Structures are given as C-alpha cells and as structure tokens.
C-alpha cells in the first residue's frame, strides 16, 4: 500500500522569528513588572507608611486600566497597522515601569501603576495578533502555547530577580523596577526589526474598497454576540489562572508557614510547570482541536485540586502546585491562537485584547473573595471551594463554544469587508 510522507514543518523566516520573539518578550516583561508589585508590596508599604489594604490598589488600578489600553491601542492598530502602536506601547510601559523605581510617595506610585495598566493592556492583544498573523497556520498551536508562557516566564523572572537583588544587594524594591528597563529595551530593539502584518494590509485594502471601518464591524450583531461570549469565557479563564496564583504565595507563607525564600522557590517550581504545560498543550490543540484540549485540561485539573490545596508537606506542595500550573497554563496556552482565530479580521488588533482584558477585570473580584474565605475558614478551603466551580465553568463554556483552528488568515483577509462574512 502506498504511504504518505509526513508533512514537513514550515520553518520560520527571520521576520516571523523576530515577530514571535518580540511578542514573547513583551508579554514576559509585562508579567515581570506586574508580579514585582505582588512580591514587594509589603516592602513598599513599610517605606511609604501605607496599610497593606491600601497597597492592594496598586494591582487593582493596573487591572482596571488594562481594558482601556486594549481598546485604545487595539483601535489604533486596526486603523494604522500593528507595528507602530506596538512600538509606542513598549516604549510607553518601559518608561513608566522604570519611573516606578523613583516614586517619592504612594500617590505617585499609584498613578504610575495606573498608567502602566494602559500599556500592559495594549501589549497582549497586539502582540498576539501580529505573531499569530505571521506564523504558519499549521504551527499556530505550538507558537500559541509558547507565547502565552511569557506570563509564566515573567513571574519566574520576577521571583529569580527578587531573590538575587534582595539577597545580594541593598537596592530593595526600587532596584527591581529599575532592572525592568533592560529587558524591556531589548524587546523594543527586536520589535523595531519587525515589518507590518501582511494580513492587516490585505484586510485594509478590502475595507477601503467597501468603505467599511473597524468600528462598523464591531457593531455587527454577530460580532457583539461573539464578544459577549468570549468575555464570559475569559472571565472564567482568568479566574482559573488568578485563583490558583494570586493568593497562593500568601497561602504558602501565612497558611503553611513557609519562609519567604522557600515560597519563592516553590513559585519558581510551579512556574516551570506552567511553561511545560503551555508548551505541551498548545501543539496538542493543533492536532486534536482547541476546545477538546482545553476541556481535557480542566478534567485533569479537577482531581488535582485536593493535592494542590490540601497538601502540607514541602514535597507534596511542590508536586501539587507544579501539576496544577501545568494544566492551568496548558489550557491557557491555547488562548492566543483561539482568540485570534475567533476574531473578525477587520478588528483582530482590538478584539482579542479587549475580550481578554475585560474578562481579567471581572475576574479581579476573585482575590478579595478568596481572601475573605481564607479569613473566615482557611486558605485550603478558599482555594478548594472557588476552584472547583471555575474549572467546571471553563470546561462547559469551552465545550459549547466554537473554534476556527484551520482558518487561513491570508484567505480570510481577502474576504474582509464582505457583507456576507460572519465570525467563524
């Protein structure tokens, strides 16, 4: 019987490689700067004489402004192209993050973190759209999984730099913010080499021919329905991610009485699990489908919750947190490809970022809910009773949704602006 030779993987061109690397580094630096605050807000509280309750507003304002950044930079990117808005965005949040090192008081730092949220909101959607538009269609799942792990890499880098700076220098929390400028500048230099998205250029040509604007596309009923669905889905996804991450360092230190250094080492371990998960589940989604892989990750994650939340020994805590982040971020590794594929080509700069960040904003209620449950019961109880329904919600919402795994962005761009075109 004749056999069919396996299809060779399409290698990346230098242009595609630079685009993907810039997106990965940009998301890494966003996460790095965000988690710096999570790691040092107690130190900042002492320096500025501000309560820990007030200090939580530093992360709250960042999360609140991320949808604003996604909307502003996304609209700009759909009208003017991906390249220039991304360059401006990286330069903007690099400068703002660096200035945090010199904040003279809490009020100034709060304003800087608010501005940083705008930059952080613009980065993910634009970077993901540009990267996914440039990489080969048949390898989109793999690069989606790797790209999303920039978030875990940023957390990992923040933990590692925190250990180095606090143990080897007397720079304190200001040194962490100052350090963030260096890798951010590297990201900017790489991104300057990236050319405009050919898919966007073709889409714009079709829109001009039909005298259509990105805003008109956003107002379509089918697009609005898809927007609402994806915001709900991303709320569940962000709740799953933040629900297993944000309160967990406090659980390790306050609930299990581990030392701060031990807690940071555990954070490094479970972020390694996150990186492994995205790198594994992303490629699997290209073969078996986006929805199936996400649902499987949720099904695997449910029986891991007791190991993750109820373990008390160091070894079991490391194992439980590693496996939990492997499946959580494994599911997340599908998202860059999944959201861009479900986005109308005319507003692919706006749509993924806005749905992601609006979901993230709603999910921000997770932390106070978990903290309240931990105070009235225990951290283990808070993690368990909140994560079980969230895993179920992510699985159910994904299963009853749609996917567009094999969509060809170039062919889709050629049809952009057609009255008959619908969201896949």
UniProtKB/TrEMBL annotation:
SUPFAM superfamilies: MFS general substrate transporter
Every Major facilitator superfamily (MFS) profile domain range: 19-405
Membrane topology: Multi-pass membrane protein
Claim: Transmembrane is one of the keywords in the record: yes
Matches recorded under InterPro entries: MFS, MFS_dom, MFS_sugar_transport-like, MFS_trans_sf, Sugar_transporter_CS
Localization: Cell membrane
Bilayer-crossing regions: 20-44, 56-77, 84-104, 110-130, 142-165, 171-190, 223-241, 261-281, 288-308, 379-400
Highest taxon above the source species: Bacteria
GO cellular component: plasma membrane
A GO molecular-function descriptor: carboxylic acid transmembrane transporter activity
Keywords carried by this UniProt record: Membrane, Transmembrane, Transmembrane helix
UniProt xrefs under CDD domains: MFS_SV2_like
Descriptive protein name: MFS transporter
């Amino acid at each position: 019987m004749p056999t069919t030779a396996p299809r060779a993987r399409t290698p990346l061109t230098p242009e595609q490689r630079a685009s993907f690397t810039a997106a990965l580094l940009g998301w890494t630096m966003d996460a790095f700067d965000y988690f710096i605050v999570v790691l040092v807000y107690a130190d900042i509280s002492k320096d500025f004489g501000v309560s820990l309750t007030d200090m939580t507003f530093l992360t709250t304002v960042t999360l609140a402004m991320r949808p604003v950044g996604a909307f502003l930079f996304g609209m700009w990117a759909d009208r003017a192209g991906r390249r220039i808005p991304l360059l401006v965005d990286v330069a903007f949040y690099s400068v703002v993050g660096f200035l945090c090192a010199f904040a003279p008081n809490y009020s100034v730092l709060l304003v800087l973190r608010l501005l940083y949220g705008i930059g952080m909101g613009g980065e993910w959607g634009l970077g993901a759209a540009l990267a996914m538009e440039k990489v080969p269609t048949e390898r989109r799942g793999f690069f989606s999984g790797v790209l999303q792990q920039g978030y875990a890499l940023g957390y990992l880098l923040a933990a590692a730099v925190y250990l180095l700076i606090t143990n080897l220098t007397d720079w304190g929390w200001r040194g962490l913010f100052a350090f963030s400028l260096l890798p951010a500048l590297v990201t900017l230099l790489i991104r300057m080499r990236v050319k405009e998205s050919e898919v966007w250029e073709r889409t714009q040509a079709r829109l001009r021919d039909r005298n259509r604007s990105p805003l008109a596309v956003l107002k379509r009923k089918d697009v609005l329905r898809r927007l609402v669905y994806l915001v709900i889905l991303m709320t569940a996804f962000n709740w799953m991610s933040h629900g297993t991450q944000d309160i967990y360092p406090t659980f390790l230190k306050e609930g299990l009485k581990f030392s701060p250094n031990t807690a940071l080492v555990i954070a490094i371990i479970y972020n390694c699990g996150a990186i492994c998960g995205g790198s594994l589940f992303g490629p699997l989604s290209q073969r078996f489908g986006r929805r199936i892989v996400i649902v499987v990750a949720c099904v695997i994650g449910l029986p891991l919750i007791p190991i993750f939340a109820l373990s008390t020994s160091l070894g079991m805590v490391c194992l439980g947190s590693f496996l939990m982040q492997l499946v959580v971020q494994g599911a997340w590794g599908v998202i860059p490809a999944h959201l861009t594929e479900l986005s109308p080509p005319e507003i692919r700069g706006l749509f993924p970022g806005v749905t992601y960040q609006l979901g993230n904003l709603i999910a921000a209620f997770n932390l106070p809910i978990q903290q309240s449950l931990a105070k009235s019961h225990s951290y283990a109880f808070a993690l368990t009773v909140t994560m079980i329904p969230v895993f179920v919600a992510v699985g159910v919402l994904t299963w009853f949704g749609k996917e567009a795994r094999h969509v060809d962005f170039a062919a889709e761009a050629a049809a952009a602006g057609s009255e008959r075109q619908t969201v896949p």
